[in-house]
Amino acid sequence: MTVASRAGLRRSGITALEICAVGALYYASGRLGLLQQLVRGQVTPLWPPTGVALAALLLLGQRVWPGIALGAFLINISLGPSVPAVLAITAGNTLAPLCACALLRRAGFRTEMNRLRDVLGLVFLGAFTGMLISATVGGGALHLAGALPNSRFWLTWWVWWTGDAMGVLMVTPVLLVLRSAGRPKGVPRSRWVEGAALVAATVAVGFLQVSPAPLLFLAFPVLVWAAFRFQRSGAAPCALALSIFAIVAAARRTGPFAGHDLLVNMIALQAFNGAAALTALLLAAAITERNRAHETIEQACRRLAELAAQTAPEVSGPLALGDDSRDDHRETAADGPDDGDHSAASPPYGRRRQ
């Protein structure tokens, strides 16, 4: 066996492992998402597999799409009304992240998400536009299979679309953060204390969200804190955690979700989730851009200072000689003209007439 064939076999094995890992993660996140189903058995207010699928495509490439299809099929085969409907839903769940990934790459999306344009691209291209495919195909498949009546089609379609979009906005940034995360070095102890305080505040606000009191708005100061102090690394996980608490409150019909029908609760829940995600991600990207601009200005100032320090000795020499010559000239002028040349110094109108 040649070296080239061994390398190709190794690459094929790595790709197969990646596909299996993506499929397993897709299936596991889907089972978790179904725990909070609000409309039928396949529609939830937050569908994490879409975020998993898009993150996998952005990080590993389009070669892992069979894992997405495999995970979607395994989830829907036990829920779908018929095999054709399950295949159609699987196709929609696979095409949606593929199209979203293609749109993001065409727009120049960076997985670091350190620019405002990256966050806006994820929101409008990855979430709102790409997930139209899965909602339309899935809702249409259920309707054609007779599992979804006409009176509930648009409600199901809207919940499906917003659930997939929230999965992209909430889960994809967290996975991108985990991909680039590393053990911090040289971090002061005060920073660790602040991070622990942020985690405690997030949990405390989350429990307040599921309480009978309508206190969803308390999430936004925590999101602002996370975005300002920790940027994307703190804002993305914080937004996901607070969104999960809000979904639990909506499922239990407590707090601001008490006493309302399903449509009103879904509108309020998805409005909160969207506002939380946009606040966290946009503010974190803006702070990151500001910090980068500040670092660039500092580097430019240091370079200018170094150039000034290098050119200062070269300039000081000629200037010093010129000052000495001017001093000598002033000393000569102060001594006055020579004693033998008084006539030249006398003014012409000072002579007496003969």
Automatic annotation (TrEMBL):
Residues that span the membrane, as ranges: 12-34, 119-145, 157-178, 198-228, 263-287
Segments for region (Disordered): 311-354
Annotated GO CC locations: plasma membrane
Topology relative to the membrane: Multi-pass membrane protein
InterPro entries: MASE1 (IPR007895)
Pfam hit, one: MASE1
Coiled-coil spans in chain: none
Localization, UniProt: Cell membrane
Main subcellular location: membrane
Chain ranges of the MASE1 domain: 22-290
Keyword tags: Cell membrane, Membrane, Transmembrane, Transmembrane helix
Bias (Basic and acidic residues) ranges: 323-333
PANTHER family: SENSORY TRANSDUCTION HISTIDINE KINASE, TWO-COMPONENT SYSTEM NARL FAMILY SENSOR HISTIDINE KINASE BARA
Name of the protein described by the UniProt record: MASE1 domain-containing protein
Originating organism: Streptomyces shenzhenensis
